[in-house]
Structures are given as C-alpha cells and as structure tokens.
Design brief:
- The structure is a single chain.
- The chain is of the alpha+beta class.
- It folds into 4 domains: about 140 residues, 2-Layer Sandwich (Methyltransferase, Cobalt-precorrin-4 Transmethylase, Domain 2); about 70 residues, no CATH class; about 170 residues, Heat Shock Protein 90; about 90 residues, Orthogonal Bundle (Arc Repressor Mutant, subunit A), CATH 1.10.10.10.
- The protein is about 40% helix and about 20% strand.
- The protein has 18 helices and 20 strands.
- The chain has a 6-stranded mixed beta sheet, covered by helices on one side. It has a 4-stranded mixed beta sheet with strand order 1-2-5-4, with helices on both faces. A 4-stranded antiparallel beta sheet has the order 3-6-7-8.
- Helix 10 packs antiparallel against helix 11.
- The chain is elongated, with a radius of gyration of 32 Å.
- About 10% of the residues have low confidence.
Length: about 500
C-alpha cells in the first residue's frame, strides 16, 4: 500500500493520470467508475491507480475526517457485484494537518475488460471515459495474452486422483480423437489430458474444465457446480414444494441425466378433445427449447461462485437463474445476435459430445420452438448484473384452483379418469350417440352392440383399461381384448403411447 510520502507527492502532481481526486463521500458511481478505469489499465503501465477522497482537483485537502463507515463503503465497492470481474484493491486512511484522505489503491487487472454495471471505463489522460469498440478490443486482447479463461486455470487444490480416468478413456477421449490416432498414441495419461486442456502440466493438477467434465466429485472442489431444480405447486416460492432434485457430478453424467429429466419429466403432453373425429396434443413446454436453456445453464455459467444454477418450475412458468450475466462482447443491446464464451473448453466439449448443435443459434432455436408450440417467447432479464435470468410461460398452465389442466404429475387413477372425462366437454352426449354412425360410415360395415359399448366407455374415459371395460360389461377380459383388436384393425380405434401413460383415440 502507498505510504504518506507517496500520497503527498501524488497530491502535488495534479496531471497524473493514475490519480482520481474527489471531495464527495457519497458518489459511489464516481468511485466505482474510477476503480474500473484503473483496473483496466488501457495504457498498460502495469502500475496501480489511486482514488483519493477528500481532495480538491487542485490537490488541496478539504478538511475531511475519514470515518470507519466511509472506509467500509469504499472497500465494499469491490464485492457488491457491480464491478466485474472483481478488481484487487486496498483502502487506507492517510492523515495530514489539513485533514484526512481516504486512499483506494487499485491494481491493474489481469482479466480485462473490467466493467461497472456492464460498461467499460478507462483512463484517457487525467480523466476517465467509456471505452469504444477499438479500446474494448485492445483490453480483450491484452487479457487473452496475460490470462487464460477460468475453465483452463489449474485447480491447485486438486490432483489427478480427483479425475475419473476410466470415464476419460472410455467416453471422453474417443469422442475427441480418432481411433487410428489413439491406437498409435504412446503418451502418458497426463499428456493426453493436457492436450485437451483438462490438465495443467506446469502445476501438475487438473484444470477447472477437467474437474467439471471428468471429476469424481466436482462439487467437492467447485462448490457451486450443480443445478438446483425445484417444482412449486403455485406461482411463487411460498407455495408447496412438489418435487426437488439436484443435478451434480461430472458433466458427462450430469448432462445425460438433465436431458432425460427434461424429456420425460418436465415436458408433459395430453390429448385435448376437438371433436369426435379429432384430438390434438397439448404440450406444456417443447423439449428442445427447455433443453437448450438448461444446457446454457451448464455452458455459460460462472463457476467461480458457490451459488448453484437454479431451475425452478412453477404452476404457470419455468424460471432459470444462472450465476454470471452476459459475458465478453455480449451486452443487452446486441443480445442474442452476438455470442461469447466464458468457458470455451466446456463449450467445445458440449458441442463435441452432442449437447450443443451449433454455436450462436441457441436462443433463436428456443424462440422458434416456443412459438411453434404456442408458448409466449422466452423473456431474458439482465437487470441483476450478477445473474442471467430467463422465464418461459407454460402453454398448458395448471388452473388457479390447484387442479391441473390435464398434465399427469403423479396423480392417482381417479384423477386421471376425471380429466379424461372432462376432455369430452359439452358435446359428450352427442358424441356418444354418434359413435356407431360415424364408425359404420368409416368402415363400411355395422358395429356389433358389444363393440359400440366398448367405444362408449372409451369415449367417456380415454385412459380406461381392458380389464375395467370387462368389469363394466361383465364379460371376460380376453373377449374385450379380442374386440379391441378388431376395432384397431379396422382403424376405428388407435392406441397412443404404451400401456402405462398412454390413451385411446377414436378415429
């Protein structure tokens, strides 16, 4: 930290570009912009910058008495989340006969550009200003030379024993290297890992990407590396929790589980009655859209935080909340047309493993899928600069009274039957009376009374089983099954889905 003599020299040098002077003790915006500009060090002098509170522009003191509260507020600028990535700074009080000076020493950042509330600030001579595109490019290139991305940095508190080497050899390596090349590869395991940026040979330890992709217990090393899923009964977090799950472990395993979960648990569909001759399927969320957003939770998040990615399902919507807002050259004005990657090794791995089809089109694909399914378009929120939030409204929300609008969330058999009956609507009696006529017209022959009775019960309850029909008609199970096979053969009756979870459709 700077000493008193150095402060005195800087106070006299009023044109020094490494010093920002102010007499305000409340203007946190001004303080933060100065800190951001010093951290970016556009001129690449590799020297600290100084914010001095209690000093006029001409270098004279204004008689300020620096309090502990002021020092805490200045130090708090580093950690309040508005300056990203976090700069290195120190705060100290220096006393003179004319008054005190609160000095904030800011070290040049190795990870530039540094932003305050999404904007890049730089020093232009003795003043500060916003960076233009060319200056932003210089800062990016400076950072790329000086510092790797976070996913390629070494995990110094881990070792090769923390990696699942069998998983690497059997599932990961063959996807990245041709079999013919692997056959002749005589390198050791560490060299193979390092060639894919999963191991740091200099520090003899895995990289962050290595721990995340093939680690035995990534969450034990990177504490926030998991997705927290919660399903709520209502429209807010105060409602009853219906389901809760945590997705963690190596990404190869976690991505498979997440993909399967979205396809078979999140996406729900049900037949909706249109007429006696037609039904249509209603889907709450299209699988491809939710899958793409969930993959983004893994690929684009900030793994430097201990907070998990959040995947919350409410009665009318899904909300995803990911640590780390827009990254690099992406900002609210050009999203989603521009793209950048906080974790490029993980991004390439996910594409190679088949979880990302094409870079740069993810959000466009999401909106297309939602529109086709008659959902509202996804809404992205950037107001909280520490997180990236997206909301997707359901195309088949649960009704306000708490009853579901046909989606099976583990409801009992009676509830399923109730929903199936409700699908028929006000025309149910008319539909039942016309079954025989419609079917005869379709197949060119009359139905037997028994077949009409079977269709009548199916019309009333399209998830009814053959055994239940046999009980209602007081005939043998095999007889019902034989009649159903005849109806299916003529095309009048069709089974949609399997025996469990499927339903009958009358054509």
């Amino acid at each position: 930290m700077i000493d008193k003599d150095q402060v005195e020299e800087l106070l006299k040098d009023i044109e020094n570009e490494r010093v920002e002077r102010t007499i305000s003790t409340k203007d946190t915006d001004k303080f933060a912009k100065a800190i951001c500009a010093f951290a970016n060090d556009l001129s690449n002098k590799k020297l600290p910058g100084y914010l001095m509170v209690g000093v006029h522009d001409d270098g004279s003191l204004n008689g300020l008495k620096v309090t502990d509260e002021l020092l805490r507020n200045l130090a708090g600028l580093r950690a309040d989340g508005n300056i990203q990535p976090k700069p290195a700074l120190m705060v100290e009080k220096v006393s003179f006969p004319e008054g005190d000076v609160a000095v904030v020493e800011v070290q040049p950042s190795k990870n530039t550009p540094v932003r305050y509330k999404g904007t890049i600030y730089i020093r232009i001579g003795a003043r500060k200003g916003e960076a233009n595109e060319e200056e932003e490019r210089i800062l990016r290139e400076k950072s790329e030379v000086k510092s790797p991305t976070f996913d390629t940095t070494p995990c110094l508190h881990s070792s090769i024993d923390d990696l699942d080497l069998d998983l690497f050899r059997t599932e990961y390596l063959p996807k990245f290297v041709k079999a013919s090349v692997l056959k002749n590869d005589k390198r050791g395991i560490k060299q193979q890992l390092a060639s894919l940026q999963l191991f740091d040979l200099t520090h003899d330890c895995p990289t962050v990407a290595g721990v995340l992709l093939i680690g035995k217990e990534p969450k034990h090393i990177l504490f926030g590396s998991y997705i927290q899923y919660v399903q709520f009964a209502g429209k807010n977090r105060a409602s009853k929790v219906l389901n809760e799950r945590q997705f963690s472990g190596d990404l190869l395993t976690m991505l498979k589980e997440l993909d399967y979960f979205i396809k078979y648990t999140i996406q729900k569909q049900r037949p909706v009655f249109v007429s006696v001759l037609r039904e249509e399927m209603r889907i709450n969320y299209p699988y491809e859209a939710i899958r793409e957003l969930a993959m983004n939770l893994v690929m684009h998040r900030n793994y430097q935080t201990n907070a998990p990615a959040k995947f919350y399902e409410y009665s009318d919507r899904i909300e995803m909340d990911n640590p780390g807002n827009l990254y690099g050259k992406v900002h609210p004005d050009n999203f989603p047309d521009e793209n950048d990657y906080r974790n490029p090794v993980i991004a390439v791995a996910m594409k190679t493993l088949g979880y990302v089809n094409q870079f740069g089109r993810g959000i466009e694909t999401v909106q297309e899928e939602l529109k086709a399914n008659k959902n509202d378009l996804a809404v992205f929120k950037f107001d909280d600069i520490t997180t990236f939030k997206v909301t997707v409204m359901s195309a088949d929300p649960i009704e306000k009274d708490g009853a579901e609008s046909g989606i099976d969330n583990g409801a009992d058999k009676t509830e399923i039957e109730r929903r199936a009956k409700n699908n028929v609507g006000d025309e149910s009696e008319k539909c039942r009376r016309s079954i025989g006529e419609v079917s005869e017209k379709n197949v060119g022959e009359k139905l037997t009374n028994r077949q009409k009775e079977i269709l009548k019960h199916i019309e009333q309850n399209n998830v009814i089983s053959a055994k239940e029909i046999s009980t209602l008609l007081q005939i043998a199970d095999r007889t019902v099954e034989r009649e159903i096979q005849k109806l299916k053969k003529t095309g009048i009756l069709e089974r949609i889905g399997g025996n469990r979870g499927g339903y009958w459709k009358i054509n």
